[in-house]
Amino acid sequence: MNANKIKEREKISCPVEYAVSVLSGKWKLRILHAIIKQSPKRFKELEREISGITPTMLTAQLRELERDGIIEREIFATVPPTVEYRLTEFGKTTAPMMHEIKNWGLKLQALNAVLKSNGKSTA
Amino acid sequence: MNANKIKEREKISCPVEYAVSVLSGKWKLRILHAIIKQSPKRFKELEREISGITPTMLTAQLRELERDGIIEREIFATVPPTVEYRLTEFGKTTAPMMHEIKNWGLKLQALNAVLKSNGKSTA
DNA sequence: CTGGATCCCGATTGATACTG
DNA sequence: CAGTATCAATCGGGATCCAG
Lengths: 123, 123
Hints:
The structure is a homodimer of 123-residue chains. Chain A has a single domain, classed as Arc Repressor Mutant, subunit A (Orthogonal Bundle), CATH 1.10.10.10. Chain A is 59% helix and 11% strand. The first copy, chain A, is built from six helices and three strands; from the N terminus they run H-H-H-E-H-H-E-E-H. Chain A binds chain B through residues 9-10, 12, 14-20, 22, 24-26, 29-30, 33, 51, 69, 90, 93-94, 96-109, 111-112, 115-116, and chain B through 9-10, 12, 14-20, 22, 24-26, 29-30, 33, 51, 69, 90, 93-94, 96-109, 111-112, 115-116. Chain B binds a DNA duplex (20 and 20 nucleotides) through residues 25-27, 42-44, 54-60, 62-63, 75, 78-83. Chains A, B: GO terms for molecular function: DNA binding. Chains A, B: InterPro entries: ArsR-like_HTH, HTH_HxlR, WH-like_DNA-bd_sf, WH_DNA-bd_sf. Chains A, B: Pfam families: HxlR. Chains A, B: Residues 14-113 form the HTH hxlR-type domain.
């Protein structure tokens, strides 16, 4: 259960482990990244932007991020229904971290591109 | 298979997804954090510092980090055997990211401590 | 001490079908 | 459009045993 996950989290002392316990998984960071880039964001927009994710997973992950106080959900009683997601004030504190992660991802991509093109040359 | 994981990675364009593909899992970031704090670090020291990890997992994760060019391993033919792990030059580029992650973890812990004391006491 | 090889479980995830 | 429910399959990760 979810409540269990929360209980487990309370035992954690290491800040890194704590952050991981909230952000781990294939999708959380990408969702966060997408919402940081443009907020608010609708369900469908997220689904399109995060290639490979299924609606089921997107819903589940969004619920967890909401429960953890990082994003908030606003429902509009329109037809068809509209739901917007945006960062909470606390959620905005992830921005520097996300920036560094993205940044490092770029370095990593660049490095691997080089390694690949070298393949077997130089050394 | 591992080679497969590498192949998959080549298709990724999003930097965040790329970073996640290398760092995801329960242990990678904690291992990195431990080695950043003090380098070089021996196998046993890592095992002690990263509470909960088993030698099997520690080995597996270290191998992946090594393969991804983030850490390097040095073996000393002593009795008993000694192995030291340290960051590569590229591995050092994770420092700002790790700093932000740790930092955010601290904020998160602080927030949840408040939420808990509100929700519980006073009641 | 370091860590390779197996086996195995259960949480995580995906596919599908359905609803307000 | 924005989900929910269910079921099945996969895979990360733990336990155990073994070796240099």
